[in-house]
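#structure-requests
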Amino acid sequence: MKHLKHLLKQPLNNLPTKVAIFILIVALLGFVDATYLTVEHYKGVIPPCSVTGGCEVVLTSIYSEMMGIPTSLVGSIYYLLVLIGAFAYLENKNLVLLKWSLLLTIPAFIFSLWFVYIQVFELYSYCIYCLGSFLTSTILFVSTMEIFAKYQEK
């Protein structure tokens, strides 16, 4: 907790607008993907999956929900929070909200790794939408690490 407080207190110096726009775009792609899966889940429909062919197995597995909540809904909320943080920075340079939303990329990346593990080693099936979410969460995580390494005051 001590390290988190220190990280949040240190300002980001000269974070270019294009970096925040990049975060916003990637988060928007993740949000669209996860929200689409959430809507389809509540409609009781399995989205078409011609590339990998394993969407039905993955999206109906026990791993598709946590305590009755679709994992895609959790993903939608995560991406929405990152979108809000990036938008707040672009609108009024709100660094606190941006930093909190960027910190969410760490547990999101860990969960994404776990879900890919499940697809590969437990289900032996791949969901192209889930892999797309893994890609966006990975890009956001790597970008966050780069932002903190490059623009965080030492």
